[in-house]
Amino acid sequence: MDLPTNWKKLMLVHMFNFTYICGVNCLTTRVQTKTITMETNFITELLLPLSLGIIMLGMGLSLVPNDFKRIALYPKAAAIGIVNQIIILPLIGFLLLMLIPMRNPELAVGIMILAACPGGPTSNLISHISRGDTALSITLTAISSMAVVFTIPLIVNLAMRHFLQAGEYVPLPIFDTMIKVIIITLVPVGIGMLIRSKAPKFSDKMNRPVKVMSGILLIVIILAAILNDKENFFNFFAQAGPVALALNVAMLLVGYFSARIFSLKISQSITISIESGIQNGTLGIAFAATLLHNPTMTISPAIYSLIMFGTAGLIIAWMNLKVKGSKVVAR
């Protein structure tokens, strides 16, 4: 199965980054206290928005309008994937936080931020390597990218209200937050789709370098989140790590077995498993740092991102063996 030009971004940054960063900064800049260092400002106001913009732009380069229409070709598979991502994921995240309480409530909010950011371009590549249904993966990613506009402000507000005390947070204005999420997600995705429609050969050519760039940027973002509060990282990992691991494994299993219960093909079950368990940690980190200005809340998405790549490696190996075994039986 050929990878349908997965995420591409890179050279268009030269004409896109200035406009994009100006737009993000205008909508997300808050009055900074004198204690905030220049390094933190650079990370939260330039590095994170730019990196997320490039990643989302690259995802747009891999999308075409038919990716959104493809839901009609396999409505059952798409419905199961969407329900897992939008409803089951935050519910399981909340239940795990009730079962495994954290001493630091901001880490708990970080887990819920992560649970509000399903999918992401990384899941498309992992689905392809795992012999999943790449077309279905791209469709679910496209839909979840639209859904985060609504899920993030609603889930994050509910999480802060539940886990934080009155006076410890300022509720997010729903409409303003939706606009900000549109700017940092849908706008670069839309620009990427426009570039693909106008220059498909260029988009195809950018496939390989963009994959490399996406991986590098994700690592940079995770390291930035960790180093920003490195003194407390191991303490935070001890608190958030078990919940992040449990959430990741639970969603991988829920995704796979929910698909199998409804008699979907193995390739579709693989994809739904991956789309359910592999989250957009980049968006979660950027949202917590850039819109909420809370470094502690970035740690949970960063920890989840580290863990999900470890479990993804195991899933890739297992799924490949399973698909090969099925082919042998079919013969």
Description of the molecule:
The protein is an all-alpha fold and 331 residues long. It has a single domain, classed as Na+/H+ antiporter like fold. It has 14 helices and no strands. It has helices at 13-28, 38-61, 65-69, 75-99, 105-115, 121-129, 134-163, 174-198, 200-205, 207-227, 233-261, 266-277, 281-291, 295-330. α1 crosses α2 (38-61). The longest helix has 36 residues, at 295-330. Mean pLDDT is 79; it is low at 1-38.
SSE blueprint:
Elements: H1 13-28, H2 38-61, H3 65-69, H4 75-99, H5 105-115, H6 121-129, H7 134-163, H8 174-198, H9 200-205, H10 207-227, H11 233-261, H12 266-277, H13 281-291, H14 295-330
Task: Flag low-confidence runs.
Answer: 1-38
Q: Please report the total strand number as a whole number.
A: 0
Largest sheet: number of strands, sense, barrel closure: none
What percent of the residues sit in helical stretches (DSSP H or I)? over 70%
Quick structural gist:
79% of the residues lie in helices and 0% in strands. It is an all-alpha fold and 331 residues long.
Keywords:
14 helices, mainly alpha, single chain, Na+/H+ antiporter like fold, disordered N terminus
